[in-house]
Design brief:
mainly alpha, Arc Repressor Mutant, subunit A, two-stranded antiparallel ribbon, globular
């Protein structure tokens, strides 16, 4: 983990943890930490980094997939799609 407060979730916040993780990953994607077609962390890596249940990590990835920020290749992982034009998309 980077140690940056923006990269941590608040388990008692009104925003569900999976949405917080999705927001963190979204920021990393738009900042270029995960460039287009690069693999994002696996569910297992997200579980370890954020200390959440696998279902929480899975839901975070699902949110980004629904937003079309990432795509998933079965048995390979999830990858960043084309870079959004602006952070607010």
């Amino acid at each position: 983990m980077t140690g940056d407060r923006a990269d941590r979730i608040d388990p008692i916040a009104p925003v569900p943890p999976y949405r917080q993780i999705a927001a963190i990953l979204r920021r990393r994607i738009t900042a270029g930490k995960y460039p287009p077609h690069s693999r994002i962390p696996t569910e297992s890596e997200l579980v370890e980094e954020f200390e959440v249940a696998r279902s929480t990590a899975r839901r975070a990835v699902e949110v980004l997939r629904e937003e079309r920020l990432i795509y998933t290749v079965p048995n390979r992982g999830s990858y960043v799609g084309r870079q959004p034009r602006e952070p607010g998309f």
